[in-house]
Amino acid sequence: MKKINKIIAYAQKQLAQEKTGHDFEHAKRTAFLTEQIIKEDKLQVDDFIVTASAYLHDVIDDKVTVNPEKKIRELQLFLKEIGCSIEKIDAILSIIQNLSFSSEMFTQTKPLSLEGKIVQDADRLEALGAGGILRAAYFSGAHGQAIYDKNKPSLYFRNKKEYRQPTTMINHMYEKLFLLPDLMNTTYGKKEGMRRKKFMQDFLQEFYEEW
To answer: Known CDD domains for this protein (predicted)?
Structure first.
């Protein structure tokens, strides 16, 4: 069994009970989008690191696990056991620990490699468009957040603690999702990100009329 297949199986097991939109299907779509980015932008990268990072990027995320440090240690051990080199392990962990929106805004310790920038763009594309709307609603519902509150304006966050405060599903679009296209690293990411953002803006026009 190839290493990448073992990694995919590991991610599927780790994310099997995930109920906030960061599940294994999201990981699969993220991996597919990395392929699109590499193809469209004609990039030369380490495909193993990109694919592995795409499948594993939420396994250690604090939105998914209550103990990220423990999950990091478990993942390191797993990657070592299946025969990944120290260099590959370090590259994967560096990506998945630094690609999130909150990491880039508040806590990033290392700049992303090209492979990391590709995974980051793919993950951010997943937060946009029709799928992004549904995932935002799914996440908000899982955390007991309101869909919309006209008396609760969207905010600008100065630190991760503020970013993690409860919000509404609609505010989340303004507070994070609509910022993503301008933060994309790749040509395909920027173009597709803007297309998906436009869809979401059109959706909001209809939403406000109905509300």
So the answer is: HDc
Placement of tokens 């603690």 in the chain: 161
The first and second tokens of residue 65, run together, are 């696990």
The Cα 104–Cα 118 span in angstroms is 14
CATH number for the domain spanning 41: value is: 1.10.3210.50
Indicate the pTM of the whole model: 0.92
How many structural domains is the chain composed of? 1
CA–CA dist 16, 185 (Å, integer): 30
From residue 134, alpha-carbon distances to 59, 67, 103, 128, 182 in Å are: 21, 26, 23, 9, 21
DSSP per-residue letters across 75-105 = HHHHHHHTT--HHHHHHHHHHHTT-SHHIII
Q: What is the DSSP letter of 113?
A: P
**H-only helix segments in 143-186:** 160-163, 169-175, 180-183
- The residue segments making up the domain with residue 205 are 3-210
* pLDDT tens readout for residues 54-85: 999 999 998 888 899 999 999 999 999 999 99
118 close to 34: Cβ distance less than 8 angstroms: yes
